[in-house]
Amino acid sequence: MASLVRFLSLAASVAVSSAVTIAEINGNKFLSPYNGQTVSNVTGIVTAKGPDGIWIRSTKPDRDARTSESIYVFGSKFASTNNLTVGDAISIGGKISEYRSSKDYVYLTELASPVLEERLSSGNAAKPLVVGKDTSNPPTQQFSSLDSGFVFAVPNNVSLISVANPVLDPKNYGMDFWESLSGELVTVRKPTAVNKPNNFGDTWVIGDWKVTGRNGRDGLTQVDKDANPETIIIGSPLDGSKNPATTKLGDDLEDITGVVTQAFGFYRILPTTAIKVKKSEKPALPSATKLKSDGKCGGITFGAYNVENLSPTSSHLPAVAEQIVDYLRSPDVIFLQEVQDNNGETNDAVVTANLTLTMLASAIVAAGGPQYAFTEVDPVDDKDGGAPGGNIRVAYFYRPSLVRLYKPNPGGSLDANEVLPGPTLKYNPGRIDPTNEAWTASRKPLVAQWEVLGKKGKPEGTFYTVNVHFGSKGGSSSIQGDARPPVNGGVEDRQAQAELTANFVKDILTQDKNAHVITAGDYNEFIAVAPLTSYVSISGLNDLDAVVGIKPVERYTYLFDMQAQQLDHMFISDSLKKGAKYEHVHISTWVDRASQISDHDPSVAKLDVCS
Ligand SMILES: *[C@@H]1O[C@H](CO)[C@@H](O)[C@H](O)[C@H]1NC(C)=O
Ligand SMILES: *[C@@H]1O[C@H](CO)[C@@H](O)[C@H](O)[C@H]1NC(C)=O
Ligand SMILES: *[C@@H]1O[C@H](CO)[C@@H](O)[C@H](O)[C@H]1NC(C)=O
Ligand SMILES: *[C@@H]1O[C@H](CO)[C@@H](O)[C@H](O)[C@H]1NC(C)=O
């Protein structure tokens, strides 16, 4: 039976079509109409050679911008066996196949098992197409017609490109644009790096075409519904050279020529040789925040910083301390995220983090900063996600000479905080609904109530804080992957987390609409996406970026794939809006990978909390 099935499928695959053009093979959709079929007499000029195959461009182009005129010919010995070189015009046969290394990726159309039928001529021109000049401009807003108009729309994964196989619309959708150039030799003129390279040296770039969302550092920020489809990642060079590891956000690069392909979940250009940096943005680091504490309730400063898996033995601990002093100007209150327990990622029963926090406090003093006090609530061992054994949690640093907890009464790991008449808190500090399943493998927000000490030690202003680190985006699919809209990993959890946290804040503001409430931290989500739109509408809080009018393109704290994006936010209640100030300090996003202390940028706010 098995051999009969094999015989039948073999019979199907040898249905020979003759004299097809490359445009006909590619077709005007994502998948080839010839997938699985054997073809012959496919003519093209060799435009590039790679370690496992060659790229050929049709000698019989059509006039349809949707049908790529080039194709990848997969066969590692094909070029050497047949002594093929760039510029050779050849006629070949083989089997059309759609290849992907993961079911979550988009397929690459290729001609496999190639056979040379005829060598037609050599020395032909293999001129690259200049992107945006010989092609239309890459679309700047949408990735795919299947995204319901928003690449982060919920629900996710409503359809699959490999199933829907839409007709390409290269003028409107970024994925369609790059698919319509699959296999093509192209040049990107005046490229700019829009992220640091990944561990393989792959680097996201834009060319000299029209872009939207450009920030002051020359990267592209994700703004509203625009997640930057006009970008392309530059992969491994065809000549075996290595892309530099030190490229930075906004670096100007030499022109890049290479072939367009699809691999590891992204359209990419494999350059003929390694990327070269021409010029870097200056200065290398941003200046310190301009926001300095007034030392009284009319001008209290609040820092927020994801310190990336900080443990007592972290080599970056002294550098974090220096950043807090030199770049954040030692805010009066700091919302920290990703503080690990006293023995870091040693996976044992230790969960307390007082050594980690004491060491950070001492390092801040050593760096010329003030003596901070800290407060936090330990998680239950291994229950809050993050690196195994690390027991990351959120924690507050505060200047005890200026602010103190109002009637401190710390809750335990499993104690659910409540808003009592006052409003005051049942636990100070205490975690929000820690046993709720919404927090499975995630950090519980830490709520605290504070007072500011006036001249004679008399309390002068009060405020409430919620320090958050919502569930991660782990499990997300590629923004250029098969699932549309792509899977935004953990979005259902973050939705539930946002609702719980927002309802807690609402309880405070229902009792006292003038209460000073500040919530901050790593929300792991974008402001325009469902968990945070719910958060704002339920809580009644205001997005501080919008309150102070930071330009939308400058609202970023993180680099991911092709974009500068904002995962870290601060929200304030109405009574704090007047005179509010806020800055993102780009000490992490601007520097090269090796110089990066944390993967997030910190932010600083200055608020009037006098009551
Ligand atoms: C290939 O196609 C051309 C016309 O497109 C034709 O002249 C030639 O005979 C064909 N060769 C083979 C081997 O089929
Ligand atoms: C390989 O092709 C080149 C021209 O493309 C030619 O000069 C050379 O003689 C060929 N070598 C062999 C071994 O056929
Ligand atoms: C941490 O807390 C434990 C238990 O309260 C205490 O014994 C220890 O001395 C503390 N360590 C530091 C560095 O404060
Ligand atoms: C998307 O949904 C399909 C079922 O329609 C499923 O097979 C696939 O694994 C999902 N993709 C991701 C990335 O979760």
Automatic annotation (TrEMBL):
Gene3D superfamilies assigned: Endonuclease/exonuclease/phosphatase
Signal sequence coordinates: 1-19
Keyword Zinc applies: no
InterPro entries associated with the record: Endo/exonu/phosph_ase_sf (IPR036691), Endo/exonuclease/phosphatase (IPR005135)
Keyword vocabulary terms for this entry: Signal
Pfam families per the UniProt record, alphabetical: Exo_endo_phos
UniProt-recorded Gene Ontology molecular function terms: catalytic activity
UniProt domain Endonuclease/exonuclease/phosphatase: residue ranges: 304-578
Protein name: DNase I-like protein
Lineage of source species: Eukaryota, Fungi, Dikarya, Ascomycota, Pezizomycotina
